[in-house]
Design a protein that fits this description.
By secondary structure, the protein is an alpha/beta fold. Helix 1 packs antiparallel against helix 2. The protein has 6 helices and 9 strands. The strands form 2 sheets. Strands 5-4-3-6-7-8-9 form a 7-stranded mixed beta sheet. Bound molecules: S-adenosyl-L-homocysteine. The site of S-adenosyl-L-homocysteine has 23 residues, from strand 2, helix 4 and strand 4.
Length: 217
């Protein structure tokens, strides 16, 4: 059974949203979506009291739920429109997917670790979130379901995977942290034609790495 959302949690969420505003997130739709998603239900019970701090936390299998500021910032850069078909790389806890669903997007999310894939695929519908969850390698994307309006990569890479470039619609937008293992630059990439991409930089972040292949346990 999943836990409950209470007035206390809602109050903590309001404070989190206020904090994100102070840190520069001004998009009302993004803030409203963060204000609606019960983040504490995406975390191990021992971390419940930390759920509404603006910090990343472990979610098992050596992975983390991203810091709320990072989720808000990536979501803002993605310029989500209602009914956008969005490919998310790195399902993790499912929290980012829930935020995108709250904004009215159709979400296709890909995870390489079987344990996390199974856990999150079961948990999200219990909370009323229905993304399409896939087990596979984010370096390959989801060629059979391409093209996508938006692609959001929630793990750090040393380059933009070619497969993901080819799965972006012309006019579509990708948000992806690219750099070294210790620090990545947040990039927004717009596909302007079949062969051309326009890239903008948005500052430094630290993500867990986008690993190769899948893990079947
Ligand atoms: N979006 C997540 C945070 C993700 S942390 C959330 O909201 O909780 C990064 C996730 O990317 C981890 O779950 C990790 O297992 C996954 N990952 C790493 N490499 C991957 C790959 N090649 N394909 C798919 N998922 C990958």
């Amino acid at each position: 059974m999943i836990g409950r959302d209470s007035l206390r949690h809602q109050g903590m969420r309001k404070k989190l949203v206020e904090g994100l505003k102070i840190k520069g997130i001004r998009d009302e739709k993004v803030l409203a979506a963060i204000g609606r998603v019960p983040r504490h239900l995406f975390m191990e019970s021992s971390f419940l009291s930390f759920a509404y701090k603006d910090q990343a936390f472990p979610i098992g299998a050596g992975q983390t739920i991203s810091q709320p500021f990072t989720v808000a910032f990536q979501t803002w850069l993605l310029q989500v429109e209602k009914n956008d078909r969005i490919l998310e790389i790195g399902t993790g806890s499912g929290y980012q997917a829930a935020v995108l669903l709250e904004m009215g997007a159709r979400v296709f999310t890909l995870e390489r670790q079987m344990e996390l894939f199974q856990k999150t695929q079961a948990l999200l519908p219990e909370m009323g979130y229905f993304p399409a969850c896939f087990f596979g390698d984010g370096w390959e994307g989801l060629p059979n379901l391409a093209p996508f309006d938006k692609i959001l990569v929630t793990a750090g890479t040393d380059r933009i995977p070619d497969a993901l470039k080819s799965q972006l619609k012309i006019g579509g937008r990708m948000v992806i942290p690219v750099g070294h293992e210790s620090r990545q630059e947040m990039l927004s990439v717009v596909r302007t034609s079949e062969e051309e991409f326009k890239t903008e930089k948005h500052g430094g972040f630290v993500f867990v790495p986008l690993l190769k292949g899948t893990v079947n346990h």
